[in-house]
Amino acid sequence: MAQTLFSEADRLDALKRYRILDTAPEEVLDDLTKLAARTCGVPIALINLVDLDRQWFKSRIGWDAVSVARDVGFCDQAILQPDEILVISDTLNDSRFASDPLVTASPHIRFYAGAPLVTPDGFAIGTLCTMDWTPRILSDDQLDTLRILSRQVIMQLELKANVTQLERTVNRQKRVENALQRSNQRFRQTLEELQQTQTQLIQTEKMSSLGQMVAGVAHEINNPVSFVYGNITYVNRYIQDLFGLLDLYQCHYPQPAPEIQQWSEQIDLDFLSEDLPKILASMKVGADRIRQIVLSLRNFSRLDEAEKKAVDLHQGIDNTLMILQHRLKPALDHPGVEVIKTYGNIPLVECYAGQLNQVFMNILSNAVDALEHANSSAAPSDPESISEQESIKGQISISTRFTHRGKFSKQPCVIIRITDNGPGISPAVKEKLFDPFFTTKPVGKGTGLGLSISYQIVVERHGGVLKCFSEPGQGTEFWIEIPICNTQPISLETHSLPTSASLEIAENLEARSNPKVGVYQDAPSS
Question: Which residues sit opposite 129 in a β-bridge?
Answer without folding.
Answer: 46, 114
